[in-house]
Write a structure and sequence with these properties.
The chain is an alpha+beta fold. It has one helix at 26-42, and strands at 9-14, 18-23, 50-52, 56-64, 72-80, 86-92, 98-105.
């Protein structure tokens, strides 16, 4: 009996560089969870946005940029209510300029 293993992939749309497709493994998911928790603890969350729909829950996270941790940015994160996993992450500058969109697909 063979089993097919589903793999979650991140399809990132960088505004300046095009599309990048890469698998999201346990290490990547662990980094994401650590990123959210660390920034909830160290960055003041103002102007909170939270929207729970029937299929997804969306929330706004104020965080230091995930690459260098130097500049404050906004992340609009959508979580699947069925799987409790992120399905979309939008990254914005403080001036509300869209920097990156990551979409998770299986």
């Amino acid at each position: 009996m063979s089993r097919m293993r589903k793999q979650i992939c991140v399809i990132s749309t960088f505004i300046l560089t095009g599309f990048i497709v890469s698998p999201l493994d346990q290490t990547g998911m662990g980094y994401f969870i650590d990123f959210v928790v660390q920034n909830l603890n160290r960055v003041e969350q103002s102007g909170n946005e939270f929207d729970e729909g029937s299929r997804q829950t969306r929330f706004l996270l104020w965080a230091m940029d995930y690459i260098h941790g130097r500049s404050l940015e906004k992340y609009l994160i959508s979580i699947s209510n069925k799987y409790r996993l992120p399905v979309r992450i939008e990254r914005y500058s403080l001036a509300d300029v869209l920097i990156e969109v990551s979409v998770m697909k299986n």
